[in-house]
């Protein structure tokens, strides 16, 4: 009898939890569906004034362009790569594909280098994470998680530099677009979601085109479905390492995980890579679908 009463109570409790959950889920979905533009469904930091930067002929004329994969605070490897490629010259335009900071050992040093040098970069999901933590840390009651302690020391100028990183950099001279994570095929640049440009890995086919997926468990790599006309250079996907498609090149070769840091020179239709070995595995393994 006692057992039955207990079971009844448990069932009642479980039922009420489920109903509460379903109600909150339904109302959230309803609100999101009717009142939020797509980007606000996923939390991101305040968007930069210019989302899409164009580096035209006046910037790249007579210069080499060198694109660098996800650095993640691997300052020593970054400097080694820049020297190996002889890229710190006035005749070389250097562009980073995002996720320059976080997770690795020397995020601040990388950020300081970026700000002091005449290099370009797009915003990755980790720059966005840093900004969200920075904004939260302005509340005196907020305690930064241990892995974001370095964010507490950022000046407002340093945060502002990260804030204004664009989501894409286009190089019409080379017919190239640089983005951190990816672009949804068949969708104009202006209609790409800020969140997805920093986080997507795959796309799934729908009746009217493609939808982005953050996780690689569903659909295809977006780059496999990208048919141009521009060539997209991106990072973010350390699990897949170097990705070579006709119209897309993925440069995240997992420096943070003991792989390589890879750079790419744009030379007409050819792709010339320069890479350096990671000095150590700063994190033991790439978690599949890591965010
Ligand atoms: Mn990333």
From TrEMBL:
<dbReference type="GO" id="GO:0006798">
    <property type="term" value="P:polyphosphate catabolic process"/>
</dbReference>
<feature type="domain" description="Calcineurin-like phosphoesterase">
    <location>
        <begin position="64"/>
        <end position="240"/>
    </location>
</feature>
<protein>
    <submittedName>
        <fullName>Hypp505 protein</fullName>
    </submittedName>
</protein>
<dbReference type="InterPro" id="IPR029052">
    <property type="entry name" value="Metallo-depent_PP-like"/>
</dbReference>
<dbReference type="Pfam" id="PF00149">
    <property type="entry name" value="Metallophos"/>
</dbReference>
<dbReference type="GO" id="GO:0005737">
    <property type="term" value="C:cytoplasm"/>
</dbReference>
<dbReference type="InterPro" id="IPR006186">
    <property type="entry name" value="Ser/Thr-sp_prot-phosphatase"/>
</dbReference>
<dbReference type="InterPro" id="IPR004843">
    <property type="entry name" value="Calcineurin-like_PHP"/>
</dbReference>
<dbReference type="GO" id="GO:0016791">
    <property type="term" value="F:phosphatase activity"/>
</dbReference>
<dbReference type="InterPro" id="IPR050126">
    <property type="entry name" value="Ap4A_hydrolase"/>
</dbReference>
<dbReference type="GO" id="GO:0000298">
    <property type="term" value="F:endopolyphosphatase activity"/>
</dbReference>
């Amino acid at each position: 009898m006692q057992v039955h009463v207990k079971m009844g109570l448990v069932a009642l409790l479980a039922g009420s939890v489920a109903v509460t959950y379903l109600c909150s889920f339904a109302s959230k979905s309803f609100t999101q569906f009717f009142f939020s533009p797509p980007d606000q469904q996923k939390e991101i930091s305040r968007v930069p004034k210019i989302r899409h930067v164009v580096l035209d002929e006046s910037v790249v004329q007579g210069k080499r362009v060198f694109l660098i994969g996800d650095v993640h605070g691997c300052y020593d490897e970054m400097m080694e790569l820049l020297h190996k490629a002889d890229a710190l010259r006035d005749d070389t335009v250097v562009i980073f594909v995002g996720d320059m900071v976080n997770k690795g050992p020397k995020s601040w040093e990388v950020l300081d280098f970026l700000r002091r040098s005449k290099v370009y970069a797009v915003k990755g999901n980790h720059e966005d994470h840093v900004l969200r933590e920075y904004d939260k840390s302005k509340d005196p009651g907020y305690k930064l998680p241990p892995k974001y302690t370095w964010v507490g020391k950022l000046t407002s100028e340093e945060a502002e530099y990260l804030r204004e990183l664009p989501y894409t950099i286009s190089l019409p001279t080379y017919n190239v677009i640089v983005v951190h994570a990816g672009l949804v095929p068949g969708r104009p640049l202006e209609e790409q979601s800020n969140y997805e440009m920093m986080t997507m890995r795959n796309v799934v086919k729908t009746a009217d085109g493609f939808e982005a997926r953050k996780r690689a468990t569903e659909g295809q790599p977006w780059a496999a479905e990208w048919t141009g006309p521009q060539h997209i250079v991106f990072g973010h996907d350390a699990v897949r390492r170097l990705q070579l498609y006709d119209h897309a090149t993925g440069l995240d070769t997992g420096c943070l995980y003991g792989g390589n840091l890879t750079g790419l020179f744009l030379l007409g239709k050819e792709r010339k890579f320069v890479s350096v070995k990671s000095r150590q595995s700063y994190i033991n393994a790439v978690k599949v679908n890591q965010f």
